[in-house]
User: What shape does this take?
Amino acid sequence: MNFFLYSLLVLSVSIVLLMLTSRSKKTSEIIFLISQVTGCVLALISAVHVFVSRVPINYRSNFRMPVGEFYVGVDFLSAFFVLTVTVLFSLAGVYGYSYLKEYEKKNLGAHYALYNLALISLLLVVTAKNAVLFLIAWEMVTLSSYFLITFYDKEKAVRKAGYLFLIATHTGTFLLWIMFLLMARQSGSMNFDQMALSSFPLPLTGLLFILGVIGFGVKTGFIPLHIWLPHAHPVAPSHVSAVLSGVMIKMGIYGLMRIIGIIKDFPEWCAVVLLLIGMISGVGGVLYALGQHEIKKLLAYHSIENIGIIALGMGIGLWGQFYHNEFVALVGYAGALLHVFNHAVFKGLLFLSAGSVIRSTHTGEIDHLGGLLKRLPWTGHLFLIGSLSICGLPLFNGFISEWLVFRALFEGIFDSQMNALVFSSLSIIALALIGGLAAACFAKAFGAVFLGNSRSVENAQVKENPLLMCAPMVVLGGICLWIGLFPATMVFFALDAAATISSVKIPPAVAGAIMIPLLTVILVLVIFTMLVAVLFLFKRIAMKSLPIERASTWGCGYSVPTSRMQYTAASFAEPILQIFRNVLGFDVKGSKPKGYFPKEEKISSHVLEASEDLIFRPIFQGIEFLTAKLKIIQYGYTQLYLLYIFIFLLILLIWKMV
Amino acid sequence: MWLELELVLIILLGIIILGNNRLGTMIQLFALQSFILSTTPLLIHPGKHAVVMAVVTIILKVLLMPWLLFWAIRHASIRREVQPLVGYGKTLILGGFLMGAAFLISAKLDLPVQETSNLLVPTAFSLVMIGFLLLVSRFKAITQVIGYLVMENGIFLFAILLLEKTPLLVEMGILLDIFVGTLVMGIIVNHINQEFRSASTLNLTNLRD
Amino acid sequence: MLPVLLHISVVMILSPLLLGIIGKTKAFFAGRWGPPLLQPYYDIVKLFRKGNVYSTTTTWIFQAAPIISLATVLISAVLIPMGSFKAPLSFWGDIILFAGLYGLARFFLVIAALDTGSSFEGMGASREATFSCLAEVVLFLDFIILALLSKKFVLSEMLEANILSSWPLFGPVLLLVGASYFLVLLTENSRIPIDDPATHLELTMIHEVMVLDHSGWDLAYILYAGAMKLFVLGGLFLNILIPSHGLSPMAQTISFWGGMIVLAVGLGAVESCMARLRLNRIPQLLIGAFVLALVGLLIILVKGV
Assistant: This one.
């Protein structure tokens, strides 16, 4: 426990120091680097210690606030999330230090202080054992993220994104307050372990579940509550985007899992709701991603898709928990948890490499880039590793977590007592569709940005990024590969955390049943790698005696091919979007060239955001309309307002008399 | 087991008719479906009644009516269907949903089907649904006739359940009805074509005020 | 180790023969003698003797894609039972690995096509990505049905549940699954009516145009991988349709290899009798395959298996 508290102490001190030295750039940078890495390492040690010693740790301070107390504890679930937070925050912080180094005109010390503040609040959120502490830390996360997002606040789009983020998160927090107050009233205490001991009547659990799903779902990005995500993530600086997408979204998942762990018995329809949310978010997220032109927005939508996959794992886990099928519950939750960690790692990697690209080329538009693999080799290859991981392809970590979720879903079909056939099959089909579409989307993104020829002239002069930006990405890529080939450690961590949620002990047979097929998978992958090596060697030996020629790509009969004739990313995604055109809406501006001697024409199309335009914009316009009606009581005359006060006073006096 | 195989083939042919846009192919598939259908009474209640039913169905639905429909399309010189109301892909998905609904309804209805397969009622319902879908979503008159005939096939499957009870005369009456209906429809299609120079039923909306 | 090598070598030796049989069948339908049965072997050997031309735009990905594609198919061959040869490697969820490996190979082929920076390859890559998404969904639905019928999720055990005595119960469903899987087979291997493996026009190509720029050893690897993929997926198809488990080894061998020849002739017949569909009809075909499998699932629900 001491390590954890020391890390909090180090980080708090660093915040104060950074605020004080924010004028001097060099000092603040050094303080930031040291404090941030130290804090993360200390917290990481405490988390790993919990897993290794298999004993959860608690700390309760004697300082009593009017409501709530400072009660933190690291059990397996919290340790897992502490692991995720610290790994990504430290690496993104090192990257951010290098990324912002040449950004001259800002008070960087304040930004670093806020980064550390975000880190502390996240650590408190995942370890809080008291509802009030949880909500205070939650609020701190929101505020620090707001300032981190609006770093480039000279631009209007950034400010608007920040407002949207604040409003959306606070709506969710409001519902969370109601939920926690209801839980506290039922159990008589604000502490989580007290709540876990009391029992909740069935209608109440349904209500709490709905409040939790909406409240946490706004933060997490379930469709249709996700509308702030595609605006906020792209406008933030890249290390902040990585941390937002990788970690802060997962706080909603942590909250849901903690609630499930506390209120153990949910009605069956809750699992159905989670599965449906998972399906819709997963497929919707990747379809919207296919239609994006800008690389960070594309990655933001992919976060929504992965949250959908996590929700699928949680849904089937909850279903298994309801029917006391321990295997399905454990494997479902373990799959969701492992995907939380995996997504943090590979999404962080992707955002960081996208940031490198943007920093080198000063643009994020996919259709303006091209051919960057030769110019930015480190960035490009690490983006490739990230893409392979996020598509769930074998050899990397995405495959392992998707495997676990598939396992839970298939076992859910086989258990005839569970009546899960229809929804499990639908989820499996949705998961297969998500995998295929994600592969298409990342083939588009990687191919259009890094391969082929450069589509605009400026890209010919880009240079690779400095070491301190590439090194964190290499570490993240290494983690992807490590989990993909040696999944045992992380799978066991995830199983331990899953056991905490479903409050079962892990039967020894479960571990074997999960690991043995996984080990065979690894064996097959090792044979696969050896085969690749053998085939490569054959080719290499044979090519020594055969002629090799280098020429430009065959131009299909064009006499003067240009780089603009390449397939663009938008054209690549067009057939898929055409198939799903009833699900997505398109907004096409401009027209085709007309006549025999057409003049210049422009055409642009983008995918409409259905939730924003069909659900939230009308709601807010309606609220605005209604509140406009209320303006009649505001005339601006002070006398009128005094009259209001006088009338109200009269009413009170009359009421008292009666 | 053979009965179930035949029922599955009938459904399969129904789905293929739903996704097709060539009129000639649709008529041939319908003829094949009716042929398989006509052998089903022989598998359920073998006997003189069933043999008579099978022979009459073959003569009417496999030989005469397809010939009639081919005559109609040859005279109206149409070969293909235009784009249906909702598009082929969506029609197929809708057909899938309706078949799911058909299976659900037949599970709830719980008709006495002990001697036969419990796929009989769902197949019959599915054919009715597919026939209705064809009727509603297609524009050419001939396709609507084919939809009507597919629906008739479904009702025939229902009737097989009651084969012992219904007198032969009633069955014959129904078949005669269908035959005359198709004959009239064929003649009308020809006349529509002569009048409007096309066989699309959209032109019939000219008749309203 | 030995069964693995045996399995792989059988696949490697016999798969181009499948292409040869298809070629002979098409020639028969067209009223000509056609190329010799061993022509695909000659083609591959000829390509192994040629040098390569690499475009200056491409990177190592272009050279890696054919190798990964071939390695994938070789590994996946180890998971399929062939007649009396049992699958050397089988474990829970090997189907997911199967689909994942094919996804990996396809991903690399697609980005290798984008690597050349030419609009032809980009077009083929885009179409291939589209249709494979839908085909994968149908494939997973077929696997769900097979898993439900056999209550297991190990590929060889799922197929072993397909025995003669269970056909009265499962027969119609297996027929529907077989029909649906056949359409997936056609899509994955780019045969008519999805794609035309014989022409090289941009209008009719999906897979062919994606690999247009490869030459020499790369093209040999890709051709070989294509033949083996057809063999492996065709073997899976036969296992679904022919209830061979439980019979004598002789009967199993004859039914499998005889079935392969019949499958090759059937594919040749389909290619000769049909034309390639318009591109916007292909998703509808795949949706039709999905609906077929869905009906199979509904039948299982009704019968309460």
Remarks:
- Chain B has a mean pLDDT of 80.
